[in-house]
Automatic annotation (TrEMBL):
The lineage of its organism: Bacteria, Pseudomonadati, Pseudomonadota, Alphaproteobacteria, Rhodobacterales. It comes from Limimaricola cinnabarinus. GO terms for molecular function: 2 iron, 2 sulfur cluster binding; metal ion binding; oxidoreductase activity, acting on the aldehyde or oxo group of donors. This is (2Fe-2S)-binding protein. CDD domains: fer2. PANTHER family: ALDEHYDE OXIDOREDUCTASE IRON-SULFUR-BINDING SUBUNIT PAOA (PTHR45331:SF1), OXIDOREDUCTASE, IRON-SULPHUR BINDING SUBUNIT-RELATED-RELATED (PTHR45331). Pfam families: Fer2, Fer2_2. Keywords: 2Fe-2S, Iron, Iron-sulfur, Metal-binding, Oxidoreductase.
Amino acid sequence: MQLQLDVNGERHALDLDPRTSLLDALRDHLGLTGSKKGCDHGQCGACTVIVEGRRINSCLTLACMHEGDEITTVEGLGAPDDLSPLQRAFVEHDGYQCGYCTPGQICSATAMLGEIEKGWPSNVTEDLEAQVEASIEEISERMSGNLCRCSCYPGIVDAIRQVAKEEAGA
């Protein structure tokens, strides 16, 4: 199947089996190996990417479903010499150990901060009319789909809170 994917601001023409997952298209056909294949069942979040501003598990969706969509992987968020604010904060707060889950964590956190900015409530949001705060409880709930086998959750939450405060101008 001939299709074009817009990934990290670049258009890519691909010839794929229509059963190819977005994750496999990114890793195996475009060489973007930041997104990881953890469980391949949408339960760990290692494959999280941002599609049209929303985070998704790329192992659970077909590449052909995203022709024309804006897809952002961790490679599109920053580079080794120009880290995104979240990437920098993950380093500062030791938000990783083995690093396997880190790309998915960073993509998820990036989109999650956008959700908070838009005022989208979560299951733990108490006041649905007030501006949502990036509290420990909110971050923990919203990031619960991203697992870290090394248990770096305190550093991950601290990194996200730092960036949320910076973005809020606090």
